[in-house]
Amino acid sequence: MSTFSIFLILIIIVSFLLVLVIMVQNPKGGGLSSSFGGGGSQIVGGVKKTGDFLDKSTWTLATILVALILLSNITLISNTTSVDSKLLEGSGIENRQVPAAELPQPAAPATNAGDSTSGQ
Fold first, then answer.
1. What are the sequence ranges of the domains in the chain?
2. What residues form DSSP beta bridges with 48?
3. 31 - beta bridge partners?
4. Distance (Å, whole) CA 29 – CA 103
5. Which of 1-20 are b and which e, b meaning 16 or more Cβ less than 10 Å from the residue's Cβ?
6. What is the per-residue pLDDT across 14-46, written as a single tens digit (0 to 9) for each?
7. Which three-class secondary structure state does DSSP give residue 113?
8. 3-state DSSP assignment of residue 68
9. pTM here?
10. For residue 25, what are the β-bridge partners?
11. Cα gap 50→67, rounded to integer Å
């Protein structure tokens, strides 16, 4: 398995986790943080500042996602080999004019001796 494939799998996993964390949040102050007592600063069931946790996890996952994308791009560029044409490098066939004598000549049409349309 190539390193690009590993990065691709990690990108998919982090993207899925980021979607989950964003979907849990409610932009109007509700969501998961309000279900634990309303205030983000209250301690309910051992959970302290759930809103802050979701905020930090969103930024962390977004940063990891950007880093993985950049790293996968670097590995993709380093794994590719140059497939430029030899003509572009100048080491291939040179562009030269071929004299007419060297060009292949078309074959002459064959004539049948028994052809009645020969004009007799």
1. 51-75
2. 43
3. 25
4. 82
5. eeebeebeeebeebeebbee
6. 999 999 998 888 766 555 555 555 554 444 445
7. coil
8. helix
9. 0.52
10. 31
11. 26
